[in-house]
Amino acid sequence: MKRWMILTLAAVALLQAAQLYKVTPSQMVLMDTLDDEETAGLVVHDRNRSAEVDEEVITADEYLSDNGAETQHAVTQLSGMQSDKPRIALLVPRKVIGGYADSVANTILSSLLYRRGNFLIEVFDSGTQNPDDLKLALGKIRQKGFRLIIAPLTPEGANRLAALEHDLLVYVPTVNISDIQTPADNFLFGGIDYEQQIEALLQYANDKIVIFGDRSRLAKKLADAIRQRRLEQIVYAKEIKNPKASLEYLLKENSRLKNASIFLNMPVVTSSLLAAQLTRYKVPYYNLLSTQVNYSPLLFTLTQYPDRQKLYIANAISDVPFALQDINTLIGSDIRFNWIDYAAGSGMDYLYANYISEGAERVFSEEMIDGQLYYNTQIVRATEGSFRPAGLP
After folding, report:
1. Alpha-carbon torsion, ordered 85, 10, 105, 99, to 10 deg
2. Which domain does 304 fall in, by range?
3. Mean pLDDT, the chain, integer
4. Is residue 369 one of the residues assigned to a domain?
5. What's the pTM value of the predicted model, to 2 decimals?
6. What is the count of structural domains for the chain?
7. CA distances for 303 relative to 190, 270, 271, 390, angstroms
8. 387-389 vs 378-382, strand pairing mode
Protein backbone atom coordinates (compact mmCIF):
# COMPACT_ATOMS: atom_id res chain seq x y z
CA MET A 1 0.00 0.00 0.00
CA LYS A 2 2.79 2.40 0.93
CA ARG A 3 4.60 1.68 -2.35
CA TRP A 4 1.35 2.28 -4.27
CA MET A 5 0.96 5.66 -2.60
CA ILE A 6 4.48 6.69 -3.56
CA LEU A 7 3.98 5.62 -7.17
CA THR A 8 0.64 7.45 -7.33
CA LEU A 9 2.23 10.66 -6.13
CA ALA A 10 5.14 10.28 -8.52
CA ALA A 11 2.79 9.72 -11.46
CA VAL A 12 0.93 12.93 -10.63
CA ALA A 13 4.26 14.73 -10.30
CA LEU A 14 5.28 13.49 -13.72
CA LEU A 15 2.25 15.14 -15.30
CA GLN A 16 3.04 18.38 -13.52
CA ALA A 17 6.71 18.22 -14.52
CA ALA A 18 5.79 17.57 -18.14
CA GLN A 19 3.96 20.88 -18.20
CA LEU A 20 6.63 22.85 -16.36
CA TYR A 21 9.65 21.47 -18.19
CA LYS A 22 9.65 20.94 -21.94
CA VAL A 23 12.79 19.79 -23.70
CA THR A 24 13.59 18.06 -26.96
CA PRO A 25 16.39 15.52 -27.44
CA SER A 26 18.31 17.99 -29.58
CA GLN A 27 18.65 20.27 -26.55
CA MET A 28 20.50 17.66 -24.53
CA VAL A 29 24.26 18.11 -24.29
CA LEU A 30 26.89 15.94 -22.64
CA MET A 31 27.88 18.06 -19.65
CA ASP A 32 31.29 16.42 -19.37
CA THR A 33 32.21 17.44 -22.90
CA LEU A 34 31.04 21.05 -22.72
CA ASP A 35 34.05 23.27 -23.29
CA ASP A 36 33.94 26.68 -21.69
CA GLU A 37 35.21 28.10 -24.98
CA GLU A 38 32.58 26.20 -26.95
CA THR A 39 29.86 27.36 -24.57
CA ALA A 40 30.14 30.82 -26.07
CA GLY A 41 29.13 29.30 -29.38
CA LEU A 42 25.95 27.91 -27.84
CA VAL A 43 24.91 31.18 -26.23
CA VAL A 44 23.86 34.40 -27.87
CA HIS A 45 24.96 37.30 -25.65
CA ASP A 46 22.37 40.00 -26.16
CA ARG A 47 23.36 43.27 -24.49
CA ASN A 48 19.84 44.55 -25.05
CA ARG A 49 18.30 41.56 -23.32
CA SER A 50 15.47 42.66 -21.05
CA ALA A 51 16.17 42.50 -17.34
CA GLU A 52 14.10 39.38 -16.72
CA VAL A 53 14.75 35.92 -15.35
CA ASP A 54 12.31 33.15 -16.20
CA GLU A 55 10.83 31.60 -13.07
CA GLU A 56 8.85 28.41 -12.43
CA VAL A 57 7.45 27.31 -9.06
CA ILE A 58 6.79 23.77 -7.87
CA THR A 59 5.13 22.99 -4.54
CA ALA A 60 3.79 19.84 -2.94
CA ASP A 61 0.45 21.62 -2.59
CA GLU A 62 -0.02 21.50 -6.36
CA TYR A 63 -0.50 17.75 -6.16
CA LEU A 64 -3.41 18.13 -3.77
CA SER A 65 -5.76 19.68 -6.32
CA ASP A 66 -8.05 17.88 -8.78
CA ASN A 67 -6.80 14.42 -7.91
CA GLY A 68 -9.67 13.02 -5.85
CA ALA A 69 -10.02 12.45 -2.11
CA GLU A 70 -8.06 9.18 -2.11
CA THR A 71 -5.04 10.67 -3.85
CA GLN A 72 -5.24 13.73 -1.60
CA HIS A 73 -5.10 11.50 1.47
CA ALA A 74 -2.04 9.71 0.05
CA VAL A 75 -0.26 13.00 -0.58
CA THR A 76 -1.14 14.26 2.88
CA GLN A 77 0.42 11.17 4.41
CA LEU A 78 3.53 11.54 2.27
CA SER A 79 3.97 15.23 2.92
CA GLY A 80 4.24 14.81 6.69
CA MET A 81 2.26 18.06 7.05
CA GLN A 82 5.36 20.03 7.98
CA SER A 83 4.66 23.63 8.91
CA ASP A 84 7.86 24.97 7.32
CA LYS A 85 8.41 24.07 3.68
CA PRO A 86 11.94 23.48 2.45
CA ARG A 87 12.50 26.36 -0.01
CA ILE A 88 15.02 25.67 -2.74
CA ALA A 89 16.12 27.96 -5.55
CA LEU A 90 17.28 26.15 -8.68
CA LEU A 91 19.53 28.40 -10.77
CA VAL A 92 19.91 27.11 -14.35
CA PRO A 93 21.49 28.63 -17.48
CA ARG A 94 19.17 26.76 -19.84
CA LYS A 95 20.79 28.04 -23.05
CA VAL A 96 24.08 26.51 -21.93
CA ILE A 97 23.20 23.21 -20.27
CA GLY A 98 20.01 22.44 -22.21
CA GLY A 99 18.02 19.44 -21.01
CA TYR A 100 20.19 18.95 -17.94
CA ALA A 101 18.28 21.85 -16.39
CA ASP A 102 15.13 19.72 -16.50
CA SER A 103 16.90 16.54 -15.47
CA VAL A 104 18.40 18.10 -12.33
CA ALA A 105 15.09 19.73 -11.42
CA ASN A 106 13.32 16.38 -11.73
CA THR A 107 15.93 14.69 -9.55
CA ILE A 108 15.53 17.28 -6.78
CA LEU A 109 11.77 16.93 -7.02
CA SER A 110 12.10 13.14 -6.75
CA SER A 111 14.33 13.40 -3.68
CA LEU A 112 11.83 15.60 -1.84
CA LEU A 113 8.88 13.42 -2.81
CA TYR A 114 10.76 10.40 -1.50
CA ARG A 115 11.33 12.25 1.77
CA ARG A 116 7.58 12.78 2.02
CA GLY A 117 8.06 16.41 2.89
CA ASN A 118 6.21 19.55 1.91
CA PHE A 119 8.39 21.77 -0.25
CA LEU A 120 8.71 24.71 -2.59
CA ILE A 121 11.15 24.75 -5.52
CA GLU A 122 11.51 27.84 -7.64
CA VAL A 123 13.45 27.63 -10.89
CA PHE A 124 15.38 30.72 -11.96
CA ASP A 125 16.51 30.46 -15.59
CA SER A 126 19.42 32.85 -16.10
CA GLY A 127 19.64 31.85 -19.76
CA THR A 128 23.43 32.17 -19.93
CA GLN A 129 26.41 32.08 -17.59
CA ASN A 130 27.63 35.58 -18.30
CA PRO A 131 28.13 37.65 -15.11
CA ASP A 132 25.26 40.05 -15.74
CA ASP A 133 22.71 37.26 -16.16
CA LEU A 134 23.97 35.38 -13.11
CA LYS A 135 23.93 38.57 -11.05
CA LEU A 136 20.34 39.28 -12.12
CA ALA A 137 19.23 35.76 -11.18
CA LEU A 138 20.95 36.03 -7.79
CA GLY A 139 19.17 39.30 -7.15
CA LYS A 140 15.80 37.65 -7.80
CA ILE A 141 16.71 34.75 -5.52
CA ARG A 142 17.74 37.05 -2.66
CA GLN A 143 14.68 39.25 -3.16
CA LYS A 144 12.41 36.23 -2.65
CA GLY A 145 14.20 35.20 0.53
CA PHE A 146 15.81 31.93 -0.59
CA ARG A 147 18.83 30.75 1.40
CA LEU A 148 19.65 27.57 -0.52
CA ILE A 149 20.60 27.42 -4.21
CA ILE A 150 21.27 24.41 -6.42
CA ALA A 151 23.10 25.47 -9.57
CA PRO A 152 24.04 23.02 -12.37
CA LEU A 153 26.76 24.96 -14.18
CA THR A 154 29.92 24.40 -16.19
CA PRO A 155 33.26 25.13 -14.47
CA GLU A 156 33.31 28.58 -16.07
CA GLY A 157 29.84 29.36 -14.75
CA ALA A 158 30.64 28.01 -11.29
CA ASN A 159 33.73 30.20 -11.02
CA ARG A 160 31.72 33.26 -12.05
CA LEU A 161 28.95 32.47 -9.58
CA ALA A 162 31.50 31.98 -6.78
CA ALA A 163 32.86 35.45 -7.47
CA LEU A 164 29.35 36.93 -7.16
CA GLU A 165 27.79 35.07 -4.23
CA HIS A 166 29.34 35.01 -0.74
CA ASP A 167 26.42 34.51 1.65
CA LEU A 168 23.83 32.03 0.39
CA LEU A 169 24.50 28.28 0.49
CA VAL A 170 25.14 27.03 -3.06
CA TYR A 171 25.44 23.43 -4.25
CA VAL A 172 26.90 22.83 -7.73
CA PRO A 173 26.31 19.16 -8.68
CA THR A 174 28.09 19.35 -12.04
CA VAL A 175 31.53 20.64 -11.05
CA ASN A 176 34.37 19.21 -8.97
CA ILE A 177 36.03 21.55 -6.49
CA SER A 178 39.37 21.03 -8.27
CA ASP A 179 37.99 23.10 -11.17
CA ILE A 180 37.27 26.09 -8.93
CA GLN A 181 39.91 28.82 -8.76
CA THR A 182 39.03 30.09 -5.28
CA PRO A 183 36.61 27.80 -3.41
CA ALA A 184 34.33 29.65 -0.99
CA ASP A 185 33.01 28.33 2.32
CA ASN A 186 29.39 28.79 1.22
CA PHE A 187 29.81 26.60 -1.89
CA LEU A 188 29.48 22.80 -2.05
CA PHE A 189 30.37 20.71 -5.11
CA GLY A 190 29.26 17.33 -6.41
CA GLY A 191 31.23 16.81 -9.61
CA ILE A 192 33.08 13.54 -10.11
CA ASP A 193 36.82 13.44 -9.40
CA TYR A 194 38.08 12.16 -12.74
CA GLU A 195 41.67 12.10 -11.55
CA GLN A 196 40.62 9.64 -8.85
CA GLN A 197 38.98 7.52 -11.55
CA ILE A 198 42.16 7.59 -13.65
CA GLU A 199 44.14 6.48 -10.59
CA ALA A 200 41.78 3.53 -10.12
CA LEU A 201 41.90 2.56 -13.80
CA LEU A 202 45.70 2.66 -13.94
CA GLN A 203 45.75 -0.23 -11.50
CA TYR A 204 44.34 -2.34 -14.35
CA ALA A 205 46.69 -0.94 -17.01
CA ASN A 206 49.93 -2.56 -18.09
CA ASP A 207 53.15 -0.71 -18.98
CA LYS A 208 52.10 0.10 -22.55
CA ILE A 209 49.42 2.80 -22.74
CA VAL A 210 47.44 4.19 -25.68
CA ILE A 211 45.03 7.15 -25.43
CA PHE A 212 42.12 7.82 -27.75
CA GLY A 213 40.03 10.94 -27.20
CA ASP A 214 38.00 13.63 -28.90
CA ARG A 215 38.48 17.38 -28.75
CA SER A 216 36.42 17.95 -25.62
CA ARG A 217 37.62 19.62 -22.45
CA LEU A 218 37.10 16.38 -20.55
CA ALA A 219 39.17 14.31 -22.99
CA LYS A 220 42.06 16.74 -22.63
CA LYS A 221 41.75 16.69 -18.85
CA LEU A 222 41.81 12.89 -18.74
CA ALA A 223 44.78 12.69 -21.09
CA ASP A 224 46.71 15.17 -18.93
CA ALA A 225 45.93 13.10 -15.81
CA ILE A 226 47.32 9.98 -17.49
CA ARG A 227 50.43 11.80 -18.69
CA GLN A 228 51.13 13.13 -15.20
CA ARG A 229 51.21 9.57 -13.88
CA ARG A 230 52.50 7.39 -16.73
CA LEU A 231 54.07 9.71 -19.30
CA GLU A 232 56.97 7.36 -20.07
CA GLN A 233 54.58 4.47 -20.75
CA ILE A 234 52.39 6.24 -23.32
CA VAL A 235 53.25 4.87 -26.75
CA TYR A 236 50.43 6.38 -28.81
CA ALA A 237 47.78 9.11 -28.46
CA LYS A 238 45.23 10.15 -31.05
CA GLU A 239 42.17 12.38 -31.34
CA ILE A 240 39.19 10.90 -33.18
CA LYS A 241 37.85 13.74 -35.32
CA ASN A 242 35.13 11.83 -37.16
CA PRO A 243 33.84 8.83 -35.18
CA LYS A 244 31.66 7.66 -38.10
CA ALA A 245 34.61 7.30 -40.47
CA SER A 246 36.54 4.09 -40.95
CA LEU A 247 39.47 3.90 -38.54
CA GLU A 248 41.30 1.22 -40.47
CA TYR A 249 44.24 3.54 -41.10
CA LEU A 250 44.65 3.99 -37.32
CA LEU A 251 44.00 0.48 -36.11
CA LYS A 252 44.91 -2.15 -38.66
CA GLU A 253 48.40 -3.58 -38.19
CA ASN A 254 49.34 -0.77 -35.82
CA SER A 255 52.07 -2.37 -33.71
CA ARG A 256 51.75 0.29 -31.02
CA LEU A 257 48.32 -1.09 -30.12
CA LYS A 258 49.54 -4.64 -29.64
CA ASN A 259 49.25 -5.72 -25.98
CA ALA A 260 48.42 -2.12 -24.98
CA SER A 261 45.99 -0.76 -22.39
CA ILE A 262 43.78 1.58 -24.41
CA PHE A 263 42.01 4.50 -22.73
CA LEU A 264 38.72 5.48 -24.34
CA ASN A 265 38.32 9.14 -23.32
CA MET A 266 35.20 9.69 -25.43
CA PRO A 267 31.40 9.49 -25.09
CA VAL A 268 29.73 6.10 -25.30
CA VAL A 269 28.78 6.28 -28.98
CA THR A 270 32.30 7.12 -30.16
CA SER A 271 33.87 4.62 -27.75
CA SER A 272 31.53 1.87 -28.92
CA LEU A 273 32.36 2.51 -32.58
CA LEU A 274 36.08 2.39 -31.81
CA ALA A 275 35.73 -0.79 -29.74
CA ALA A 276 33.81 -2.44 -32.60
CA GLN A 277 36.51 -1.52 -35.09
CA LEU A 278 39.23 -2.82 -32.79
CA THR A 279 37.43 -6.15 -32.94
CA ARG A 280 36.87 -5.92 -36.69
CA TYR A 281 40.54 -5.36 -37.43
CA LYS A 282 41.58 -8.00 -34.89
CA VAL A 283 43.77 -5.67 -32.85
CA PRO A 284 45.44 -7.75 -30.08
CA TYR A 285 45.17 -5.13 -27.32
CA TYR A 286 45.55 -5.91 -23.60
CA ASN A 287 42.38 -4.18 -22.34
CA LEU A 288 40.15 -1.12 -22.70
CA LEU A 289 39.81 1.46 -19.91
CA SER A 290 37.26 4.24 -19.44
CA THR A 291 35.98 6.68 -16.83
CA GLN A 292 32.35 7.39 -15.89
CA VAL A 293 31.55 8.73 -19.36
CA ASN A 294 31.00 5.19 -20.68
CA TYR A 295 28.97 3.87 -17.76
CA SER A 296 25.77 3.72 -19.79
CA PRO A 297 23.22 1.06 -20.74
CA LEU A 298 23.70 2.23 -24.34
CA LEU A 299 26.95 0.31 -24.28
CA PHE A 300 25.02 -2.96 -24.44
CA THR A 301 23.04 -1.77 -27.46
CA LEU A 302 25.95 -0.28 -29.39
CA THR A 303 28.48 -3.09 -28.90
CA GLN A 304 28.66 -6.85 -29.21
CA TYR A 305 30.00 -8.77 -26.24
CA PRO A 306 33.43 -9.44 -27.87
CA ASP A 307 33.83 -5.66 -28.33
CA ARG A 308 33.46 -4.95 -24.59
CA GLN A 309 34.79 -8.20 -23.13
CA LYS A 310 38.04 -6.53 -22.00
CA LEU A 311 36.49 -3.17 -21.07
CA TYR A 312 36.95 -1.80 -17.53
CA ILE A 313 34.96 1.25 -16.43
CA ALA A 314 35.34 3.45 -13.35
CA ASN A 315 31.93 4.06 -11.77
CA ALA A 316 30.99 6.42 -8.94
CA ILE A 317 27.27 5.61 -8.81
CA SER A 318 26.16 3.48 -5.85
CA ASP A 319 22.90 1.68 -5.13
CA VAL A 320 19.96 3.56 -3.64
CA PRO A 321 16.52 2.28 -2.51
CA PHE A 322 14.32 0.94 -5.30
CA ALA A 323 11.45 3.25 -4.27
CA LEU A 324 13.68 6.27 -4.90
CA GLN A 325 14.74 4.86 -8.27
CA ASP A 326 11.08 4.34 -9.18
CA ILE A 327 10.13 7.92 -8.40
CA ASN A 328 13.09 9.27 -10.39
CA THR A 329 12.24 7.09 -13.36
CA LEU A 330 8.58 8.13 -13.35
CA ILE A 331 9.43 11.82 -13.16
CA GLY A 332 12.10 11.64 -15.83
CA SER A 333 15.52 11.51 -14.19
CA ASP A 334 18.06 8.70 -14.09
CA ILE A 335 20.06 8.14 -10.90
CA ARG A 336 21.16 4.67 -12.00
CA PHE A 337 23.38 5.71 -14.92
CA ASN A 338 23.38 9.50 -15.30
CA TRP A 339 26.05 10.79 -12.93
CA ILE A 340 24.75 14.36 -12.98
CA ASP A 341 21.31 13.20 -11.85
CA TYR A 342 23.00 11.01 -9.24
CA ALA A 343 25.14 13.91 -8.00
CA ALA A 344 22.06 16.13 -7.79
CA GLY A 345 20.24 13.44 -5.78
CA SER A 346 23.13 12.73 -3.45
CA GLY A 347 23.76 16.41 -2.85
CA MET A 348 20.07 17.04 -2.18
CA ASP A 349 20.13 14.14 0.26
CA TYR A 350 23.08 15.72 2.10
CA LEU A 351 21.43 19.15 2.16
CA TYR A 352 18.19 17.69 3.48
CA ALA A 353 19.88 15.81 6.32
CA ASN A 354 22.19 18.66 7.31
CA TYR A 355 20.33 21.90 6.58
CA ILE A 356 16.63 21.24 5.93
CA SER A 357 15.82 18.53 8.47
CA GLU A 358 18.91 18.23 10.65
CA GLY A 359 19.57 14.73 11.88
CA ALA A 360 17.50 13.01 9.20
CA GLU A 361 18.91 9.69 8.05
CA ARG A 362 20.93 9.80 4.83
CA VAL A 363 19.79 7.74 1.86
CA PHE A 364 22.94 8.11 -0.26
CA SER A 365 26.33 6.94 0.99
CA GLU A 366 28.59 9.79 -0.21
CA GLU A 367 30.22 12.08 2.35
CA MET A 368 30.79 15.82 1.99
CA ILE A 369 34.40 16.61 2.87
CA ASP A 370 35.77 20.17 2.72
CA GLY A 371 33.01 21.26 0.37
CA GLN A 372 33.24 18.33 -2.05
CA LEU A 373 31.06 15.23 -2.32
CA TYR A 374 33.30 12.14 -2.29
CA TYR A 375 32.31 9.06 -4.28
CA ASN A 376 33.17 5.42 -3.79
CA THR A 377 34.78 4.68 -7.15
CA GLN A 378 34.43 1.07 -8.25
CA ILE A 379 35.85 -0.61 -11.33
CA VAL A 380 33.19 -2.56 -13.21
CA ARG A 381 33.09 -4.70 -16.32
CA ALA A 382 30.41 -4.75 -19.00
CA THR A 383 29.44 -8.43 -19.11
CA GLU A 384 26.95 -9.97 -21.50
CA GLY A 385 23.97 -8.16 -20.03
CA SER A 386 24.97 -5.99 -17.08
CA PHE A 387 27.75 -4.13 -15.28
CA ARG A 388 29.47 -6.22 -12.62
CA PRO A 389 32.36 -5.44 -10.27
CA ALA A 390 35.72 -6.29 -11.80
CA GLY A 391 37.14 -9.51 -10.47
CA LEU A 392 33.81 -11.33 -10.19
CA PRO A 393 33.26 -14.27 -12.55
Report:
1. -170
2. 194-315+377-389
3. 84
4. no
5. 0.82
6. 2
7. 30, 11, 9, 19
8. antiparallel
